[in-house]
Amino acid sequence: MTPDTYGDVTAEYQAIHDAAAIVEGRHALVRVVGPDAESFLDSLLSQELVGLADGRVVRSLLLGPRGKLRALLWVVRTGDEFLIVSDREAADSVVEDLTRFKLRVDLTIGPVEPVIDLVGPGSPSVLAATGLTALAAPLGTLDRFFVLEPEVDQLTAAGVRPAGRLAYTAIRVEMGEPIMGEDVDESTIPQEAGSLVTEAVSFTKGCYLGQELVARIDSRGQVNRQLRGVVLAENRLPPSGAEVVAGGEPVGSITSIAESLLVGAPIGLGLIRREVEPGSDVEIRWEGGTARAQVRELPLLGSESTLAS
After folding, report:
1. Rounded distance between C-alpha atoms, residue 212 and residue 293, angstroms
2. Mean pLDDT of 212-236
3. For every residue of 69-83, which 3-state class applies, written as one string?
4. Of 195, 165, 199, 164, whose CA–CA distance to 182 is shortest?
5. I need a labelling partner for 256 at 20 to 30 A (CA). Which of 19, 34, 40, 179 fits?
6. SS3 273
7. Global pTM value
8. By the 8 A CB rule, do 14 and 161 touch?
9. Buried b / exposed e across 156-186, counting CB within 10 Å, b at 16+?
10. What per-residue confidence (pLDDT) applies to 308?
């Protein structure tokens, strides 16, 4: 489990934005190896994997049969081996779902393995100095790598600061990256989850698990809610699950909440009804408190965001 902080949230946050930091316990790896791995995974995952070049990292989704989210993924291929990285909370479901469909195919599905997030503009230099194996998976506008060898001591010896959950959540919310089980879950339609469909779904490949709902909404429909950013106008930190209210009516809820130094305010992610457009003023309500806020487009920060040293 990722600790909240290693003692200095501000320094951890600054390290992610301006240097490099390691975050443990946020992601995990599953290996699928064998001559049938390509066709097997292509029939289940939303991204086009047939002919995927060795070493190229792509976003993908694992869906349920009815098209709802099961896991948010990054996938890379090395020959007959595919490495699948998911949120740690979803990794066991990935193994369970893949194993359920493993029928008459020549492949092996490995156990869940830990990975380390290495995040920040100094990350490439750290990897060059340490020689560790990692997958490039940007976090918004920031460099991020999933380090496959959990060599924490080697990374800290190279001067990399460990960062806890509070600092990492602030960055993640700024960049608009949802986590499975927190911001989205098994009731979420992929098109509700911000830009994920654009990044993670191929509309030209053959059939895959859950494709029908995704294709139908893309061609004929629209979803009733969207993942949005929320910026509070008051220095109050509501809990996750706090209600978002517009015009006196509930329109969604806060799924992640953090304090952002660069935005200069508490910020959050939330699944909010589509008629509440970015720029709309809302009220956040929870037991024992309220706060004024504004709905924003994601990401909340762009490439111009740097901290003064």
Report:
1. 37
2. 92
3. EEEEEEEEEECCEEE
4. 165
5. 19
6. strand
7. 0.94
8. no
9. eebebbbbbbbbbbbbbbbbbbbbbeebbbe
10. 41
**What pLDDT does residue 194 have?**
83
What Cα–Cα distance (Å) separates residue 309 from each residue in 7, 76, 143, 235, 294? 19, 35, 19, 24, 29
What is the Cα–Cα distance from 188 to 270, expressed in whole angstroms? 12
pLDDT at residue 303 greater than cutoff 80: no
Contacts of 23 (CB under 8 A, 6+ apart): 2, 116, 117, 119, 162, 163, 164, 168
Which class would CATH give 25-164?
A: alpha beta
DSSP state of 19: S
What pLDDT is recorded for position 304?
A: 43
- Cα radius of gyration rounded to whole Å, the chain: 20
Which pLDDT does position 258 carry in this prediction?
Answer: 97
CA distance 144 to 118: 6
- Spell out the domain ranges in the chain: 25-164
Closest C-alpha among 219, 222, 209 to residue 67 = 209
Supply 271's token pair. 């699944």
**Apex 94 CA angle, 92 and 97, nearest 5:** 110
